[in-house]
Amino acid sequence: MIAVPYLTALTTFFSYVLLFAFGQIRDIFRKIADWYSSNNLQGYAPICLGLEDFYIRRLYLRIQDCFGRPISSAPDAWFDVVERYSNDNNKTLIRTSKKSRCLNLGSYNYLGFAASDEYCTPRVIESMKKYSPSTCSSRVDAGTTLLHEELEKYVANFVGKPAAIVFGMGYVTNSAILPVLMGKGGLIISDSLNHNSIVNGARGSGATVRVFQHNTPSHLEEVLREQIAEGQPRTHRPWKKIIVIVEGIYSMEGELCKLPEIIAICKKYKAYTYLDEAHSIGAVGKTGRGVCELLGVDPVDVNIMMGTFTKSFGSCGGYIAGSKDLIQYLKYTCPAHLYATSISPPAAEQIISAIKVILGEDGTSRGAQKLARIRENSNFFRSELQKMGFEVLGDNDSPVMPIMLYNPAKIPAFSRECLKQNVAVVTVAFPATPLLLARARICLSASHTKEDLIRALEVISQVGDLVGIKYFPAEPKKQQEEGKMLKLE
Amino acid sequence: MNEASMNPQFEISSKMASAVMKIVNTTLDWVTLALDAPSARAVVFGVHIGGHLFVEVLLLVVILFLLSQKSYKPPKRPLTKKEIDELCDEWVPESLIPPITEEMQSEPPVLESAAGVHTIINGKEVVNFASANYLGLIGHEKILESCTSALEKYGVGSCGPRGFYGTIDVHLDCEARIAKFLGTPDSILYSYGLSTMFSAIPAFCKKGDVVVVDEGVHWGIQNGLYLSRSTIVYFKHNDMESLRNTLEKFTADNQRAKKLRRYIVVEAVYQNSGQISPLDEIIRLKEKYRFRVLLDESNSFGVLGSSGRGLTEYCGVPIDKIDIVTAAMGHALATEGGFCTGSARVIDHQRLSSSGYVFSASLPPYLASAAITAIDVLEENPGLIKKLKANTALLWKGLSDIPGLSIASNPESPIVFLKLEKSTGSMKNDLSLLEDIADRVLKEDSVFVVASKRSTLDKCRLPVGIRLFVSAAHSESDLQKAAESLKRVTALVLKS
């Protein structure tokens, strides 16, 4: 949990109030200007009324150049960012043909499979020539090829469950599975900081949704006890089933979930568990099998395991792993399986090859090296940042590290200054995070070398001094040197 | 003897009665004396206050006291820890999934090669009518070439959402190409066909808005409408009379509808029945009643119209009259993903409020470059569309005289939908009959057709049937083979 220092909270609040006030003044002027010009909507209600898009028009558009930066090469450790310019004060951004080579600290490329890989890419091209980029039909019609069956077997094996089902997009996996499993009369208890796809799936299912405090097993127990005792709202009939949804690594906090405690509580109260390993599969754990391996939880104890292939495997799509009966039932009822186009065959081949590399089945030890490197990189980077005095969130071993910025003016300052020095970072503000807690999020990769990390640390330290985000006292240099002397002795 | 025993009792009771009477009389005398005391004989405002006034005042005080007391409520007793423990122990949840039945165990056929017009299943070569490969672009040389170079340059995935370095220059090129092809100001790419509609609809339809939608739309649209929490009104499938009545009724009911947004959602070629919606009629109704139109052109993009620009070209309607056009690219364009196109305001709004765009990784770059190449091929070879039309007409002729099955789709639609002439009454039985036909056709004649399957979440109630997707790459002999085989097998199955 983040404890915001009072002065920072005050100044952040004040900045937002100022921005809001200026926005309102500009809106008033625009209304007056619109009074004179003709309204060409002719009886149709406008698409966005009044304050619905106030945040977008008056706050987001000012810093629009920090988001959505186009790139023109593979999202590897170093990539080319296309430069853009604007003639009308950031309202529209126009691409130029100039690019700058920058260090990539923003893409989800945990094991370094993003660019062309020596083992995976030839196989992917071969499978594309054999099966063509798309099957143009859903899995139950003509969309199941030998590759799809192989992929499901591999994924089930890798995760440690009897069977798995694969979809073409991670977002749709959550949104289409939850309505199938839960209906009216069911209860979904989800972590307060869960991803938008889980929230959408929960809403679309028709079940009642309750939220428990982020990563707090004691509050989860309280909520469970209260809900089972009370039953359904208004009728007080007992719930049909209860499902608890948590994520492996929370992408905006970088924290690992407290899985063993949560599983113990769910077992005690007979609730089903759903684990979303979008960021943790392939990135943590000794052999890359995710949070279950890292925290010592047996996969049998988790009822439904879900994950995506976008982050660690350098491909696209999502999967659900569970018991054979569960997967059979989902194949019969899930709309994403019955109606949507099946996953593209080259993408499936990329996943299979990536899993083979991770497990060492390609004959080399590249997989083990990658896993060791990402762990080293994350721990080194995090400890260095903390020594410099930045406020960094997240647990050890997690490759996601958010650096707190708080103030809305520091968001574009940090982003633009880093880009000037050829380091590309991602800054996140409202609505992906709470209003006062804006942050810059760093995602490391196994393809970052030690020199890359040292360069990144230099640049971030410089920019941090310039922008003023070193909220904690830095470890003084004398202490560091003394520490080194002791080690030498 | 009786007289003697009775008498003393009588005397005692009469003595007691007289004693009681004496006591009562004395008490009454004292009370009257007290009440007739000098204070009671005061004269206030010319009114005599008699002694009885004190009794009335006392009564009033008692009444007021009783009224001011709270009514009796049984005290609240929250459940004790022990009771909650007991309830938790007693509670038994349902199992996560219902028991697996026979029909849930069926497996779809597994392809061993690309899903083109001729594909290999179980080692045998079959004619494929189950892929929506309308222009025959699966396996096209140019597309494979452009994909190979994209794979070598960019790898497979894009490793990030559009807002965080997931925007690759091929995405922007693809969006510009689609907008140029259709003649609209701008377009936006989604990474999955199904998520296009169910992300675009909640971005525009909010709680309280009104959406009039056809009852035969596919699940993606139904889910999007459910998530948007607007008021949904269904009209009969492809029936313009029903649409007009619904619009009329709605506008008459709601007079203060100035700030209300109103939408009509239709598909160009319906996936569930193969019908084509009459766009010019819909545009007339929309302009009369001031509704916005959302059109899903997944199965008509690249198929209808003389140059493949979709339903707007086919019906002669300028595309800027349709507010929002969406399409999945997994049909005619032989790639994956989806796009949405319209005015600049519409597209810009989606870049920040459409959840499937903002919170999800972007389309893999090789699929975007495949889309650009597919549109290039389409523009250079308009003959593909003519061939598709000819194939559809040929197949229609061949299938129109099968006893027991009737064609439910439009003669110009590339989806030929065969339904049972006489339904058996339950959807399950219909489906098992049709699946039987499809299985036998595959096993005995090597023609691959599928029966349309419905999910339990789908609200559509249109009849199920056998779907054939016609492709421009089918040859005449393929089509004849399909028609003959279906005729033969249907006669066999329906007789038994």
Automatic annotation (TrEMBL), chain A:
Keywords: Acyltransferase, Lipid metabolism, Membrane, Pyridoxal phosphate, Sphingolipid metabolism, Transferase, Transmembrane, Transmembrane helix. Residues 102-460 form the Aminotransferase class I/classII large domain. The keyword Transmembrane helix applies. It is a single-pass membrane protein. GO terms for molecular function: pyridoxal phosphate binding; serine C-palmitoyltransferase activity. Pathway: Sphingolipid metabolism; Lipid metabolism; sphingolipid metabolism. It is found in: Endoplasmic reticulum membrane. Gene3D superfamilies: Aspartate Aminotransferase, domain 1 (3.90.1150.10), Type I PLP-dependent aspartate aminotransferase-like (Major domain) (3.40.640.10). This is Aminotransferase class I/classII large domain-containing protein.
Automatic annotation (TrEMBL), chain B:
Pathway: Lipid metabolism; sphingolipid metabolism; Sphingolipid metabolism. It comes from the Eukaryota. It catalyses: L-serine + hexadecanoyl-CoA + H(+) = 3-oxosphinganine + CO2 + CoA. Its EC number is 2.3.1.50. It is found in: Endoplasmic reticulum membrane. GO terms for biological process: ceramide biosynthetic process; sphingosine biosynthetic process. It is an enzyme of class 2 (transferase). Its main location: endoplasmic reticulum. The keyword Ribonucleoprotein does not apply. Its cofactor is pyridoxal 5'-phosphate. Pfam families: Aminotran_1_2. GO terms for cellular component: endoplasmic reticulum membrane. Residues 125-486 form the Aminotransferase class I/classII large domain. One of its GO terms (molecular function) is serine C-palmitoyltransferase activity. Keywords: Acyltransferase, Lipid metabolism, Membrane, Pyridoxal phosphate, Sphingolipid metabolism, Transferase, Transmembrane, Transmembrane helix. The chain crosses the membrane at residues 42-67. It is a single-pass membrane protein. Belongs to the class-II pyridoxal-phosphate-dependent aminotransferase family. This is serine C-palmitoyltransferase. It comes from Castanea mollissima (Chinese chestnut). The lineage of its organism: Eukaryota, Viridiplantae, Streptophyta, Embryophyta, Tracheophyta.
